[in-house]
Amino acid sequence: MSEVAADHSLPERQTRALDNCEALIRLYRRHADTARHWYHFLQITGITLGGLTPVALLINGAPAWIPAAMAALGAIAGGLNATFHWHEEWLRNTYFAQALASEQERYLARATEPYRTTLESQTALDNFVARIEDIRMREASQWSDYERTAIEPQGEPVKRTDDRPTPRQAGGDAGRSG
């Protein structure tokens, strides 16, 4: 048992673990709500502007810049959704908020294997803390993998037969000259 754990009673550790889990659930739900709002706003904006652009073209005497601006703003809305992946963020954060809430319920009910009432309370709490941390680390790993694939070039990596660094390793950019 760690020094920190030894310095705190079981009820204090349990309160701290449950409070931490609640804070994570709130965080993921808040991020999910933000992503959902942006996704819906940008989707509705793009669809609305895309649908109204032809109508604006039919209005006699309307300045030409109005339908052009509408089409451009619709394209920008679609581009922002594609760039920031609000839909994927919404789903990912919702999933992890629900996974944490579900794990918390299983712990409080002491109804599943890692929390059975036949286990000592200390063991059940240790299992809960470990499982919450595992969920959090899975989310961090998933985010990291997602970010890495978002910035790496698509396709298979080029196999090199020498030990020279690639442009990325050398701090350069393959598309940049001189």
Note down, in words, how this protein is organized:
- The chain is mostly helical.
- The protein has one domain (9-150).
- It has helices at residues 3-6, 10-58, 65-84, 86-109, 121-151.
What's the topology here?
Elements lengths: L2 H4 L3 H49 L6 H20 L1 H24 L11 H31 L27
Helix pairs in contact: 2-3, 2-4, 2-5, 4-5
Summarize the structure.
The chain has five helices and no strands. The protein has helices spanning 3-6, 10-58, 65-84, 86-109, 121-151.
So what's the overall shape?
Answer: elongated
Radius of gyration: 25 Å
The helix-strand sequence is HHHHH
Residues in helices, as a percent range: over 70%
Describe the biggest sheet? none
> Would you identify the regions where 5 or more consecutive residues have pLDDT less than 50?
164-178
CA-CA gap between termini: 58 Å
Kindly name the structural category.
mainly alpha
β-strand amount: under 5%
* Continuous helix count: 5
What's the mean pLDDT score?
A: 86
How many domains, as an integer?
Answer: 1
Counting DSSP E segments of at least 2 residues, the number of strands comes to: 0
Please give a handful of descriptors for the protein shown:
178 residues, mainly alpha
